[in-house]
């Protein structure tokens, strides 16, 4: 009993994500924060800044650790 030949791309590495995806996510976050600030005022902007503190702190640690 013979096996069918393997596809040439069967063990290929997954395709890299489109580099524009991160820019779309950043634009979406900016639009959502702007809409929240328009709807609820400065408290929404302050809450977004407070939520960003741990993220920025983690990124600084990652950059520092290499």
* Structural class determined from secondary elements: mainly alpha
Give the overall form. Answer: elongated
Distance from N terminus to C terminus (CA atoms, Å) equals 52 Å
**What letter string, H or E per element, gives the SSE order?**
HH
Beta-strand content: under 5%
| Rg measurement, Å | 22 Å
Biggest β-sheet description: none
* Average of the residue pLDDT scores: 87
What level of helicity do the residues show? 55-70%
Number of strands: 0
Low-pLDDT runs: none
Transmembrane segments: 21-40, 46-64
Keywords: Membrane, Transmembrane, Transmembrane helix
Features of this protein?
single chain; 66 residues; mainly alpha; 2 helices; 0% strand; elongated; membrane; transmembrane helix; transmembrane
Walk me through this protein's architecture.
Keywords: Membrane, Transmembrane, Transmembrane helix. The chain crosses the membrane at residues 21-40, 46-64. The protein is an all-alpha fold and 66 residues long. It has a domain at 42-66. The chain has two helices and no strands. It has helices spanning 20-40, 42-65. α1 packs antiparallel against α2 (42-65). The model has no long low-confidence stretch (mean pLDDT 87).
Ordered list of secondary-structure elements with their pairings:
Blueprint: H1 20-40, H2 42-65
Helix pairs in contact: 1-2
In short:
Helix content is 68%, strand content 0%. The protein is mainly alpha-helical and 66 residues long.
